[in-house]
Amino acid sequence: MATEARRTPDARPDAGAHEVLRDRMAAAAADLAARARALNDRRVEAFGGAGLELAGAARLDTGRPRVPCDAAAVGGALLLGANPPAGHGRPESVADVLTLHRLRVEDGGPPAFEPAGADAVPGLLDDPRLHRDVEELFRYYRHARLLRLRRTGPLLLAVFSIGERATDIRVLRWRAEDGGTVAYLDAKGERDHLDPTARSARAAQDVVWTPAAREDHVTGRHPHVAVDGGTLYVSTVGGALTVKTVNDTETAEGVHSEPVEDPLQALADAEIAHARVGPLVLLRVLPYNETVHRHLVFNTRTGEVLRLDGIGQACRRLPDDQGVVFPGGCYLADAPAGSAARTFEADTEGMEFEAEVRSPNGEDVLYVFHAPSRGRSLLLPYNLIRKEAAAPIPALGHALFDDGTLAVLGEAAGGEETAAHPVRLWNTPYALRPRAAGPAGDGPLARVGNAELVRGISDCLSVVRLAEGVTGWTARGAGGGGLPTAAALEAVTAACARAADRHHWLDAPGLAEELEGLGTPLRTLREAAEQAVAEYARVAELRERAAAAVEETAARTTALVRRVRGEAPGEAAGWVALLAELRRARGAVETLRELRHADPGRIDALGAELDEALAATGRRAAADLSRADAFDGVGAAVAELAERAAAAPTAAEADALGERIAGHADGLGAVTEVIGSLEVGDATVRTAVLERIGEATAAVNRARAVLEGRRRELLEAEGRAEFAAETALLGQAVTGALAAATTPDECDEQLGRLLVRLEDLESRFGAHEDFLARLAERREEIRETFAARRQARLDERARHAERLAVSAARVLETVARRCASLASAEEVAAHFAADPLVARIRATAEELRSLGDTARAEELTASLAAARQEADRALRDRVELGADGSGGAGTVRLGRHRFAVSTRPLEVTLVPHGDGLAFAVSGTGYRAAVRDPDFAATREFWDQPLVSESPHVYRAEHLAATVLADLPPDAAGTGDTDAESLLPLVRRAAETAYDEGYDRGVHDHDAAAILAQVLRLRAGAGLLRFTPRARAAAQLFWAYGADGAARAAWTVRARSLARARAAFGAHGALEPLAAELGRAAQQFLERAGLPAPSRPAAVGAYLAEELAFSGGRFAVGPAARALLDGFHASLGGAQSAPAEEFAEDLRALGGGSPGEPGRPAARHQLATAWLGAYAESAAREGREGREDGRDAAPSPDLPEAVAVALCGDALEHRDVDAPLTAVVTGLLGTHPRITGGALPLRLDEFLARTEEFRTVRVPAHRAYTRRRAELLGAERERLRLDAYVPRVLPAFVRNRLIDEVYLPLIGDNLAKQLGTAGEDRRTDSQGLLLLLSPPGYGKTTLMEYVAARLGLAFVRVDGPALGHRTTSLDPAAAPDATARREVEKINFALETGSDVLLHLDDVQHTSPELLQRFIPLCDAQRRLDGVRFSDGRPATYDLRGKRFAVCMTGNPFTESGARFRVPDMLANRADVWNLGDVLSGREELFALSHIENSLTANPVLAPLASRERADTELLVRLAGGDPTARPDRLSHPYAPAELEQVLGVLRGLLRVRRTVLAVNAAYIASASGDEAARTEPPFRLQGSYRDTGKLAGRLAPVMTEEEVEALIDDHYTAEARTLSAEAEANLLKLAELRGRMTREQERRWREVKEAFRARAARTGRAAGAAETVPEPIPQTVPEPTPQTVSGAAPEAEAAAGGAAL
After folding, report:
1. Is the CB of residue 364 less than 8 Å from the CB of residue 388?
2. pTM (2 d.p.)
3. CB-side exposure of 1583: number of CA atoms within 13 Å?
4. Whole-angstrom Cα distance, residue 1197 to residue 1119?
5. Exposure winner among 249, 448, 828, 1292, fewest CB in 10 A?
6. Helices marked H in 954-1064
7. 832: in domain
8. What pLDDT, in 10s, does the model give residues 992-1037?
9. Is-contact 1349 901, C-beta < 8 A?
10. How many domains does the chain fold into?
């Protein structure tokens, strides 16, 4: 046993830690014991209980000598069974063996038994059948004798022996009922009486023995058998019965050992079995050649092994596996080692288990053991709470009466035969009928029950005993053994856990404290024990590590010492190495002492071993180094190193040589030190060795000097080259780091790496001052570069985050608009689950988080959740408030009125106003003229809504021209350029130009058709694609404005560039030349007075192309040629006199060439007049021939015809006969240019017109659009329209109070102000709504909700901002800027006129004069004077017939407690409602609204806000304990756990509501009271929806009633801090209202009221009115009646609700 304990690591904790934990455990155990005993005393007082005590002694007189064998209690009498002694005759009748006796107890006298007749208990001994059966029994069986009397269930058995065998019996039977009725049955009860063998088997079955099998054998040097899966290991080999707890076959030692009779036996020779009883393992072992089993008990909690052979006779489990009981003793599982077993000196021979009798209170158990062969019994009492067995009571027989009296039949003194038999009487708790019933009612003791209390107290006291065993260990032990074992501490931890798990009431909320709070010390004890176990584990780990380190060092030391002893180095270096290694090993051994829990003895032994080895090796080294040639090897090696150092090629090689030289120097120093420290007997030896060491040291110093000189030379040369390379690499690293630094964090990371690299370079080149200066410069450059890059990345990230947030806000608006059209909750859920826009918002939030903008991400997520809530609420409102109940958005019903819903958003637009434009708010009468002079210049675009279309350009034409501009110039008009093939190309272009208003399938179709025609015409037109005007200007310039040299140069350049274009596809090659030609032509034409085209670039482009194509032969179109031919024909031909006269006139005006241009402007005017007159004449003839009679358009070819006529002699011309016109048919769009789906098309005109539109008008229109958007945005910002869009708070809940009371009230008023929908609409709009209530009840929120549902602009005016000094609606008269802003809002609302709800909030802070200005709105005239917000001019607003409403809200009581008086004239005309007055009969709804309004404040209750309203009401009733409420009527399927959470929060919320309603009632009562009658300080704490919501948000399902009350305390304490001097009085009043005043508070409250009345008396104010104190709030929420769903008393809540507003 000692060996195994020594092999186990001594993992005891430090004494200091143990002291702390032990004291903590001891205190907790003492507390737990005291509480458990106190609870037990209460249990005994409540349920009754009695101990086992001796009541007295008495005698039984049988009249004749008898040998008693047994007794039984029947019908209140004692039935004695006795046999006549030998020599006194045979028994013949019932009276010879069975007699009845009555117990008589006189006052003050001893108890005594007196004989009773056979008929004392009817049916017992007076039955004739009994007498007959007994007489026959004795007649037929001469040796018959009574063995015993036995109760088994309702039967009473009398067992007679009739033979020599144990089975030769005859059994008489009676039925004994609980009421005392006895009836004899027969003499056939053998089957009811089990034979001894059967009873022994049954008794043995209480513990199940499991024999060991062959597979449990563990072989080895010392084999053993594994028991209980390896819990124990048992062996009977080696001459001893050994029990081990460790599977170690290398040793025979164990925790228990005892010798066996036969030492020569194998492992399989013994019979081994085990049984498990809780933490106990019972062993039954029969060694080889032995006849009696040995029985042992092993306690897994304490590690104790004890031999108890008594369990082999009859072993029974104690209740709850507290241990085992056996004849003569017991073993307790939870008791400390050494005190767990208790045995008594008693005769237990042949004892078998007979019966188990439990007391009614469950605390006591009586175990009855019986020896059938000897007729003896042993009674063993056991107490479950104290967990102790009393001394056993031996008996010849015993009888237990119904009242618990136990009569024990004893043996006469000396065993003599006598007629007086001793009986001891005991008072016991084993009453068959309890003397007292359990406690009445439903108190905590009754709810738990006596039996459960007994078990719980018993388990707690078991924990105490285990803890006392641990905390008292030090007193029993000594030294280290005074600390408890880990197993003992683990047993305490396990016992605490078992007790807590078995008995829920130890920690049950609301129950544990009423039952002495056993859970608290139990939890403390468990935590302390767990800490102690953890300390054990920590120490064990440290000890194992220390032991491993010591053993590892010991192994190295042993190997080193062995090697040193066997080596003999031939030179000094070898000896130095050996000695140095020994010294290092010695130092390593010394460091082991620093390890905690290391074995100091083992360390000392290792140190001594190394010291001896050092001394021996030193002596050997001194003897060897005294030789003359001992250091020759060192000298030669150093000389060689010196030669190599002088010729070292690099500094790195020099450093390596330096290390070798230093090694020799260190070796010599070590030898010197060793020799100096050795105790050498011969001094000459020491001197000789030191002299040789000095010579060798001198050689080393010379080598060092050579090496240092060479190294300095090499470093100077190599350093500069290396620095240049390193700086180059540093530059590359900086470039790479800048490329990798894509975020601010990466910039910091890369900069840090570069700075580390710079520091490394500084350390390497620190010897060079110039290098350090250059590195410092680079450091600053790198810092500045990365600072700039980091700032750029920060700016980029901020811009990106801003773009994301703005985009997400727009998407969120789109999502909200889409939700307005969803028709069911399923569609809303599907939309927010799968819609791409919603997914985009979530993705944007995640991206913002990744950018570090968590605040915006959270705001976006919250906004999305709010949008979801608003969608659900809006859908629910549309369904429930819709006039037809269908959820349509057309009308909304408020009470009994239907109202039209305006769905137009509040937007700023531009509308015509006079001769200009004006800002307008959509759907209203607001107009404000635009006074921006720059914007007036864009008048031509005011009537052009689309950038792609004007009266002169069809948008499909613009689209076709845009696509044409992107096509190559040589794109053909045939083949794959038909309309069908061009449609995809056109459609792609239309899709990218999303702002140009193309309708898919219409304008793309038309554009493709137009483009196909244009391409076809362009393919044959050549240069005729340029307009006649451009071609005419080019001819005039080329003929009169360019000399020959310029012409030649421009021609060469044009032709060359054209060839380059053809060779390389450079389509823009001619553009510079074209621009140059255009500028030159423009300058000439303007200088010469000739008509200049609006776009000179077209002239240059045509001229460049003409020069490149023909070299100066200008193309003439067929129309121009026809015009000239017709002109000449009309004159009679080219040779006719009129024609000659025309030519002569032109010549008379001069020249016709560049050298002599003459007067070109006059010549051009003349030619234009002639040709124009002809063209007009031809046009008139054409008009007369037209069927429609319309004027023909002027000929566009006239400028070209004029130019050809003027330049005919100066230029060469070529006629080009190509079609330029076509009609595009089948068009689907509409435009003034389209007639019957057909669009006339002329190529040159189309190209010029669309080119100018595309390059000039479209950019100008886009600039106009941008300016227009800027003006609208600025005006919207000035008007602050976003502030007037009503937004319903996410926490708003439309409850029953709102539906059934407030909305009908508001609807009645708005029906007068706005007018209702339908034919019954009033035409005389009038009225004003004034709502009054204390603050915090949601008046403003309600009106904003109404405005949102009606689609009205909500203009909220802040009353406190207006103040009492604002009396006019003129902003200029406002007293300050804040008031001016509020007055401007009023005027804006009045000017807007329609679809507006003007809301004046907190009007009690405003001037009555200002309020009276709204009186005209109450009458049919509906006119009000004010100042226009748009231009600041006075105006009279006429609101008749307009959807305009005014609502005022306020608190009827000011902050000082005075009542707010509404101006009389306003009160007489407006609808003034004090919301508290409209609650008559609706008090329950008001109370319920506090619950409904606070749902969204608590995460557990928040889902209820979007579910069926009836569910909320039913849940409130369930939480209030309404017996008629049933959870199966809930429409939503709540899981039990979810339902319990909801109800838990609602229970707390009901308590909160009771306080809030009471506070509200007290606030109103105080504020509305007469100051002269006040007898206590004013009560200013408020109880509103706001207070309920704040408290609801902090409620948790697991809160107890006291925790909820503490939460209310904290809330109102914080609220009272704002009241300064009145805080104490208000808190005292609150405590009075809640009924939670302590005596000290009551005393203080009286003092405060007395002081208040005294001050009132001094100031002359009367204080004699009777004080009204509201009834305190009950501390427990009563179960409501079915009529009150709020959980409060109907009268109290009715009073609170009726005065709430």
Report:
1. no
2. 0.51
3. 27
4. 6
5. 249
6. 955-966, 979-992, 1003-1021, 1028-1040, 1044-1064
7. no
8. 887 888 888 889 999 999 999 999 988 888 888 888 998 888 888 8
9. yes
10. 8
